[in-house]
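Shall we go through a protein fold together, starting from nothing but its sequence? Label the sequence line and the structure token line clearly, so we can match residues to local backbone shapes. Would you write everything just below, so we can both look at the same thing?
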Amino acid sequence: MAKVKPFRGIRPPKELVEKVESRPYDVLNSEEARAEAGDNEMSLYHIIKPEIDFPEGTSEYDPRVYEKAAENFQKFLDKGWLLQDDKENYYIYAQTMNGKTQYGLVVGAYVDDYMTGKIKKHELTRRDKEEDRMKHVRVNNANIEPVFFAYPDNKVLNDLIMRYAATEPEYDFIAPIDGFGHKFWVISDDKDIETITNEFAKMPNMYIADGHHRSAAAALVGAEKAKLNKDHKGDEEYNYFMAVCFQASQLTILDYNRVMKDLNRMEPEEFLRKLTRNFIVEDKGEDIYKPQEIHEFSLYLDKHWYSLKAKEGTYDDSDPIGVLDVDISSRLILDDLLGIKDLRGSNRIDFVGGLRGLGELKRRVDSGEMRLALALYPVSMQQIMDIADSGNIMPPKATWFEPKLRSGLVIHKLI
């Protein structure tokens, strides 16, 4: 059963939260972080992207950069820009995008649940990226940023959350750039804390929605600390890592689309003709066309949009991977026709998150940067859970969650 615990969060005072909070470390580069932080010395970027405190061009993997993260974290604590709560709490974090709100419970997730597979993953991780985040966790002795989990819908937890949602939040702000709303409540009532712990204990599994590298790094550092501690008892704080857990039905997964640089030495007519072997191809004209259902794709080529509907027999409904549109398009279009076999490594393809809209696909093709674009129908959370339950791994670049979690609302110390 899933094991969680409350923790003594380290948080900015209410009046400073908008100075401290930031986007996650992995959604922007060093130059963008430097620009967003500007002259704001309270920005969390000084902890999660500390290369901005060095001359431009300094590698984010320079040993001095990790040391600077720990130095800045201590500075934030010393100056009172971050304060630790007096008691162990759970927290509620709500995000509003396009009028829809999703409510997450911020918990300490159990390291052993990750190591034994009770916390299920659907993506592969790269060791170099794991090690980068492990260094960051080690040097700060803290989970500075949360990971993003989903759990099966639970009425008891939902009712508890809605009760808090009707009260005044601790934090309430609109994030710059994307304009999404963020609210935050503290759950300090012992009875409510017990209810949350007990309800999670009834769940056989939780699921990583986003942040596979952060999850791996946090759990591996916790396991590492347990192994190194000769007096390890099992109740130490490092046995847990910070996660924001959302009900699966509330999550929004956007399409994750593709743009390609060439037609693999084919003329457009030949390419379209070969597509008809596996797809019903229909010219939709010059107006942007979005896929309407599973197994339908939108293709943009030579200022025309096309609907591509996968024919019967090109996918297997009983196969949790083979039924995915990302797998169908990878097999039958990218690999078979375009010769793009390595989605992670090929320089002939790029990926565009659905938040940018299909207009971004059109722009990149019309500019001449790319030759054609392919839009996919979004993966569902149920598909992700089915794949995780089956022990399979999603194909690369399959999911795009929005909104992203803001960092800096709460931090979990490992001691």
Q: What stands out?
A: The chain has 13 helices and 21 strands. The mean pLDDT is 95. The CA atoms of residues 253 and 401 lie 5 Å apart.
